[in-house]
Amino acid sequence: MIFEQVNHAGTLLAIIITNSFAKPGVHFFTPDAFSQQLAYMKHPAGAIILPHVHNPVLREVFYTQEVLFLKRGRLRVDFYDEDRSYLESRILEAGDVILLASGGHGFEALEEIEMVEVKQGPYAGEADKTRFSGITAADAVVKPIE
Fold it and tell me: Is the dihedral of CA 138, 128, 66, 10 positive or negative?
């Protein structure tokens, strides 16, 4: 049952849920105030999830938060603070999920990857992000997922 909150200076940068995480029921990893909600669900065969619709609720989103589902391969995730200073890295394996909550991030595919990205819309094109130069593989300080 492994998951990790990556923090820096009191700010949550990311939440990682490894493929080995398994807990019965519904488990939310994000605070209620996050504009992107992330939960894990495990139910036995025959469990019923009642049909429902989602009500229109006006929400204001100031920062894009994204969730990546790594289907195949290995991916190094590099974390940066809001000032674009490199902090540390993690390695994601096939089946892992990460919510990128704040700060900056960059990636290197360590093997051929397939992943799915989910984030808020509508997409604002180039106004949605500011690109900057990142670290090299030799500079990466990879920490194990706790």
Answer: positive
Domain holding 111: CATH number?
Answer: 2.60.120
Residue 144 lies in a domain: no
Q: Is residue 129 part of a domain?
A: yes
Other residues' Cβ atoms within 10 Å of the Cβ of residue 98: 25
Query: Does residue 124 form part of some domain?
Result: yes
Is residue 116 within 8 A of residue 71, CB to CB? The reply is: yes
Percent of the chain with pLDDT strictly greater than 70: 99
More confident residue, 34 or 110: 110
Q: What is the DSSP letter of 138?
A: G
pLDDT tens string 85-132: 999 999 999 999 999 999 999 999 999 999 999 998 888 888 889 999
Structural domain contains residue 12: yes
Q: Where are the alpha helices (DSSP H) in the chain?
A: none
Q: Which domain holds residue 88?
A: 3-43+59-139
Q: How many domains does the chain have?
A: 1
Measured between alpha carbons, how far is 29 from 38 in angstroms, rounded to an integer?
6
* Average pLDDT score, the chain: 94
